[in-house]
Automatic annotation (TrEMBL):
This is Ig-like domain-containing protein. It comes from Dreissena polymorpha (Zebra mussel). It comes from the Eukaryota. InterPro entries: Ig-like_dom, Ig-like_dom_sf, Ig-like_fold. Gene3D superfamilies: Immunoglobulins (2.60.40.10). Residues 8-91 form the Ig-like domain.
Amino acid sequence: MSFIADRPAIRSVYVNQTCGNSEDVCLTCFVRGNPLANISLRRPGQNIAIIECLNTTECNVKISKSAIKSSEYECTASNLIGTARQTIIIHEDLKGRSQCKRLV
């Protein structure tokens, strides 16, 4: 049996407006990679992650709608082979017009 390793790839980053209650939104990051990745969600330029998920393919965080002011959030996935990043912009109106841009 051979082991094929590859760097993480971010499959999707999206906002779910129906998590928990009407005052929260969920930010979810899906990743693939072998070995499994450590995933963090943070605001770009900040050293402290909002949440970190270890050795997994999915990471979720609830954010209060009142805390979102047209903000960017970044999903970073790392394993022994490499790192991937993707940023999502969450608009203040939260009407499903979130935009994603992929960073290398």
